[in-house]
Amino acid sequence: MTETGKDEAIRSEARHWLMRQALDGESLEHSEPFQRWYRASESHAQAFDEIARTWSDAATLQDLKHLVEPQAPAANDSWRMRAIAASVALVAIIGLLIWTLQRPQVYQTQVGEVRELALSDGSALTLGGKTVVAIRMTESRRFAELRAGEILLSVHPDKQRPFFVSAGETRLRVVGTQFDVRRGVSQVEIGVLEGTVEVVGEREPQAIKRVHGGQQVVATGQGELGEPQLNGPMQPGSWRKGQRMYIDTPLREIVADANRYSQQSVELADAGLGELKVSVSFRAENQQQMLNSLQLALPLTVERLASGRVVLHAATTH
């Protein structure tokens, strides 16, 4: 691994620790795994301290600084131990008072279920089948973490209280807009109906993509962002009505979506089949229609097992 790659890996680990505290409410001050990681090398400590400072809102720190009482270090304390104590205490306070004013409210749907919710800030949220999303509201910010599946968000405008969404290694920031987010097997898709969404990937946190109404963007599972493109024939959120349409989409993503709407799971006999790209359209609840469409578009055979599972194989040629 190159030095640049190594540095970025360390920064990614530092962001992981901060996100873990923010979303789970875990105090890093008492986390032995974090303490071991932080002390492992000076580069770990520097990366963590730098990102903690970046993530901390200056006004928030000003409001909270009176809560941090300086203590005289023991005679044998090193500068690093004092730095650890200071940064961990500061992050712990921010985590407890800002990010964890309340534990996130987790919403989850079952296979085939589509659920609509009204959020406390006036926003509306629709969850697709087999979806998990965690919502957190504070006085200054609003958060949603898409852990699995797909959501459509109609964000109530509030310039003083932005709405942040995370899906794997992809982060979004909005003020007031309507858009959907799908977290697939190996990619995250964002489609915007109205307004503008700022999207940033973990790989290039300094590179922000602005996605406007009528556009979509795809991010890899590692947080690499593509360029915004026009939305396809199906508008974001059309999945609420059960219609699915895919244009040049990897088979693994189509199968993953189908499995969130059917009790009979579809599997790929060979992981390599998942790389095949195809354009198809079908009703989400009609598994047979999907299988027929895939067989017409790709050289596949369908095996139905006694257990109810469906397995897709590459068609053999003679």
**Count of discrete alpha- or pi-helical segments spanning 4 or more residues:** 7
Number of domains: 3
Q: Count the strands?
A: 18
Look up the CATH topology of the largest domain: Jelly Rolls
**Which architecture name of the largest domain does CATH use?**
Sandwich
Radius of gyration: 23 Å
Main sheet: strands, sense, barrel: 13 strands, mixed
Protein name: FecR family protein
Domain FecR protein: 106-198
Keywords: Membrane, Transmembrane, Transmembrane helix
InterPro entries: FecR, Ferrdict_sens_TM
What does this structure look like?
With 318 residues, the protein is of the alpha+beta class. The chain folds into three domains: 3-99; 105-230, Jelly Rolls, CATH 2.60.120.1440; 242-314, Phage tail protein beta-alpha-beta fold. The protein is 29% helix and 32% strand. It has seven helices and 18 strands. The chain has helices at 3-24, 32-40, 42-55, 58-64, 79-99, 251-259, 287-297; strands spanning 105-108, 115-118, 124-127, 132-137, 142-154, 163-167, 170-174, 178-183, 187-194, 196-201, 208-212, 215-220, 229-230, 243-250, 266-268, 277-283, 300-304, 310-314. Strands 1, 2, 3, 4, 5, 6, 7, 8, 9, 10, 11, 12 and 13 form a 13-stranded mixed sheet that branches. A three-stranded mixed sheet has the order 15-18-17, covered by helices on one side. It has a two-stranded antiparallel ribbon with strand order 14-16. Strand 10 (196-201) and strand 11 form a beta hairpin. Helix 1 (3-24) crosses helix 3, helix 1 (3-24) packs across helix 5 and helix 2 (32-40) crosses helix 3 (42-55). The protein is globular and about 60 Å long. The two termini are 45 Å apart. The model is unreliable at 56-77 and 91-101 (pLDDT under 50).
